[in-house]
């Protein structure tokens, strides 16, 4: 296939490289001066999209996605498919889907989980929204860039699944960290805490697969001085998107709102920027009840 790839950062760069390695012709564009193995660089997003069967975007946010869509949609041939893999607000995903539909293009919102390791290893999970035909057009590329793609429903459903998942993740990570900090103060050994909780009803991915306590459980960013991993500011971004969606859908999400408030304090006032999102554990450890 001829593929246009726009946004070749930490995630998009290795994803585009994997498509090229699999034998596709990939033309890329990024605002920054980047070069990616096997990818021919274009001078603009529109140029990268011209003649492409599929255009993939991997951009920082919904506002940038909307601006890039304004450039690439008019350059794309009728019947081609636009696949946005960025994590953006549900409203932007649906607006771009409508715009693509009006130009007789297919659209899939397909945010990912799996992080930078998953992008370079080709093991991402895609959560996709769009028509069955649009999903079918993108699926062979998901198979190259990832190990699993779930068709979640119509346009916007991929973003909805992503932010609901990450809202749970933010909440459970905070719960796991505050429970460890309480256990410390009660004199409970961290390894014993892990041994019990990881096999009891308090278990979760945060505890079992990504334990925030150094030296306990599987290797995780906690064992590397909380270098990300999944940075606290990216968690904050996703929690904000969840609250934005909750407002627009009139959903009551008090735990998600509290998780957003805590990550916002952590990132913006307490030095959490640049640390892994599991660094909530040393944050709680350093605090008392009345801080
Ligand atoms: P990044 O900042 O490394 O990459 C974004 C790229 O987009 C940059 O290279 C930037 O120059 C480029 N860009 C910005 N505006 C542009 C424009 N108008 N035209 C062309 N290029 C433009 O970010 P990333 O870590 O690759 O994340 C990309 C998306 O993936 C985000 O939406 C993020 O939330 C999501 N995501 C990231 C991770 C992760 O672990 N990094 C995990 C899952 C999802």
What does this structure look like?
The chain has 291 residues and is of the alpha/beta class. 48% of the residues lie in helices and 14% in strands. The chain contains twelve helices and nine strands. It has helices at residues 12-21, 45-49, 62-72, 90-102, 115-121, 132-145, 157-185, 190-197, 205-208, 232-249, 254-269, 280-285, and strands spanning 2-6, 25-29, 39-41, 54-57, 81-84, 106-109, 112-113, 124-129, 146-153. The protein has a six-stranded parallel sheet with strand order 3-2-1-4-5-6, sandwiched between helices. The chain has a three-stranded mixed sheet with strand order 7-8-9. β1 (2-6), α1 and β2 (25-29) form a beta-alpha-beta unit. It is elongated, with a radius of gyration of 20 Å. It binds nicotinamide-adenine-dinucleotide. GO terms for molecular function: 3-hydroxyisobutyrate dehydrogenase activity.
Order of helices and strands: EHEEHEHEHEEHEHEHHHHHH
The oligomeric status of these chains comes to single chain
> Globular, elongated, flat, extended or rod-shaped: what is the shape?
elongated
- In the predicted model, the low-confidence regions spanning at least 5 consecutive residues are none
Order of strands in the sheet with most strands: 3-2-1-4-5-6
The largest β sheet comes out as:
6 strands, parallel
EC number: 1.1.1.31
Family: Belongs to the HIBADH-related family.
Keywords: Branched-chain amino acid catabolism, NAD, Oxidoreductase
Protein name: 3-hydroxyisobutyrate dehydrogenase
